[in-house]
Design a protein that fits this description.
The chain is an all-alpha fold. It has one domain. The chain is built from 6 helices and no strands.
């Protein structure tokens, strides 16, 4: 796969997956209608989570194009295992970023329905990772992935970056 195709495929997948999960569905649930009386510290925390989530998501997607030479989409996987950037701290930064965006929206808008949606998202993602993604990566990248998997936590980031390949 060329870098241009990887970039285009990743952009399409960014809109189709995180765009729907962290954009369209929260909008359908809330119409971006903020509740009155949301304390400013919650709004500030929500804004910080949304901004941090977007930044992390974009960095992770870029990493798939540049380092992996592929996309996060299962139909167009990377040629190389992605282990740089945020992936040095945690194996699932994209899912964590999307979850942060949804929780941030919940705080910003004062909408509990988005917290419930974030919980459903977390359960679905954890099941997908356990049942499909990890076995697929183990088959595709073998010993390299198993070494990475042992060194880098899936959901709770390391304090220091992993210094393995990448």
């Amino acid at each position: 796969m060329t870098s241009a195709r990887a970039a285009l495929g990743s952009l399409v997948f960014l809109v189709a997956a995180p765009g729907v999960v962290a954009g369209l569905i929260p909008w359908l649930l809330t119409r971006w209608d903020a509740r009155d009386g949301v304390p400013w510290p919650l709004r500030l925390a929500g804004t910080a989570l949304v901004c941090a989530g977007i930044a992390a998501l974009l960095e992770a997607f870029l990493r798939f194009v540049v380092e992996g030479i592929g996309t996060p989409a299962p139909v167009a996987p990377t040629e190389h295992l992605v282990v740089g950037g945020l992936y040095r701290f945690v194996r699932n930064p994209m899912y964590l970023a999307v979850g942060a965006i949804i929780v941030g929206q919940a705080l910003l808008l004062g909408r509990a329905v988005l917290l419930a949606y974030a919980a459903v998202f977390a359960v679905a993602v954890a099941a997908f990772v356990h049942l499909y993604e990890e076995p697929t990566l183990a088959r595709r990248y073998g010993v390299e992935y198993e070494s990475y998997r042992r060194a880098v936590p899936g959901w709770w980031p390391r304090w220091t970056p992993w210094r393995g390949r990448g």
